[in-house]
Write a structure and sequence with these properties.
The protein is of the alpha+beta class. The chain folds into two domains: about 25 residues, no CATH class; about 160 residues, no CATH class. About 30% of the residues lie in helices and about 30% in strands. The chain has four helices and seven strands. Strands 1-2-3-4-7-6-5 form a seven-stranded antiparallel beta sheet. It is globular, with a radius of gyration of 20 Å. It starts with a helix and ends with a helix. About 20% of the residues are buried.
Length: about 190
């Protein structure tokens, strides 16, 4: 009995040290990668995360599909599909531009707005939404802000780093879906 308690203490202590040290903290995190959260978070212009493509299509009658990818039929891994659409001539806070919406497993996860006048738009957005952007380690040089409950907003102003040649944009994402996508990639790619 004495040995059993001693071993249990050592194992639990080691596990605690291992987790505090930052080793795979998601080891015990279970997810279906398709669950739709009841609490949504607002992205650009009040558009809420976790909408399906059908829900979003009701709001945006016309869009162009710019990316559609998913696992091959019969793949044994959990679902992983990315669907990105572009809405042209979108207007936000008085500025026109192009809006990209990204769906992860048929759940709206991210919006990116490419305004025609980037600097003026960013000023207006900060003023209108009372946002304070700061540089973070995760942002990789892109200032970001957080808005409750789960919105991350960032400013991408580094077109020379964009291999696809996209222009500068402001992005909004649901941090929970970002985490799920990262977790899927870490576990199954």
């Amino acid at each position: 009995m004495w040995m059993s308690t001693d071993i249990r203490t050592v194992v639990l202590g080691s596990l605690l040290v291992w987790m505090i040290a930052g080793c795979d903290q998601d080891l015990f995190y279970a997810t279906s990668f398709t669950e739709v959260a009841t609490e949504r978070t607002k992205l650009i212009d009040g558009i809420e995360s976790y909408q399906s493509t059908d829900d979003a299509k009701r709001r945006f009658q016309q869009w162009a599909v710019i990316e559609e990818s998913s696992l091959a039929p019969g793949d044994k891994r959990p679902p992983f599909s990315i669907y990105v659409v572009a809405i042209y001539n979108y207007s936000h806070l008085g500025y026109s531009g192009k809006l990209h919406l990204t769906f992860f497993n048929n759940r709206l996860a991210e919006a990116r707005f490419y305004p025609s006048n980037f600097e003026k738009y960013v000023e207006r957005l900060q003023e209108h939404d009372k946002l304070t952007f700061t540089l973070t380690e995760k942002g990789v040089g892109s200032p970001e802000a957080r808005v409750a409950p789960h919105t991350r907003i960032w400013i991408y102003n580094q077109p020379h780093l964009d291999p696809q040649g996209h222009k500068r944009y402001v992005g909004w994402s649901d941090a929970r879906l970002e985490k799920e996508e990262t977790l899927w990639i870490e576990r199954y790619s």
